[in-house]
Amino acid sequence: MLLPVNLTLGAVLAVLLAAAATVAAVAHLGRSRRIAVAGVRAAVQLAAVSLVIGVVVESLPLLLGFLLLMYAVAVRTAGRRVTPNGTWWWAALPIAAGVVPVVAALLLTGLVPVKGIALVPVTGILIGGALTATVLGGRRALDELAQRRGEVEAGLALGLLDRDARMEVAREPASDALLPGLDQTRTVGLVTLPGAFVGMLLGGASPVEAGAVQLFVLVALMAVQAVAVAVVLELVARGRLHRDGAERADGAG
Prior knowledge:
74% of the residues lie in helices and 0% in strands. The protein is mostly helical. It starts with 6 loop residues before the first helix and ends in a 16-residue tail after the last helix.
């Protein structure tokens, strides 16, 4: 086991969390309270999930219910981070569009069995990747449209459709949401050894097996995130996902 679960671990985690919140406060980053709350929430949620997974892996209905819960939480988190108004629920579409086809393909090909011990972590990684891409892509697109409204109006004056004028402005900024995943994939093994690789090694797998699993995770994530960004960009361009009549989403979530 990499880390012993004891009081020492708890004390070190508490010190690290306090240090992160303190640095944010001293540097006036405006996120110190959220850092502290996020750390405490993570501890509580992981403790609860650790207990729940032990139950759901034995029951297909419970397993499906747990996966739906993960999806619902991701949709609300992503949607409220992009916009605080009532259009936030459109975030359900890019997340589902990215995750569902990939998970279905993995199940149909037998690469991932219909078992909680395999399906939950794989689906969770993919949902998390889609959530991040949706948030970054949606926020960047909406921020850019707000700042470059004149360019959108110029496009309309030249005869472009509203969707096309918005797309011209928002496409490149939204695509920046793919950069973290691209950088992680390009530097894997050279800069970092990601969690799936380390976890497989600690579980007794050979380095080759661990590398294959990590490669699968990275490529699947790129596919999921590319679809999520494309869909959220389309929703923004068509005006389905917007911030009209609401304040900026910086404080959402």
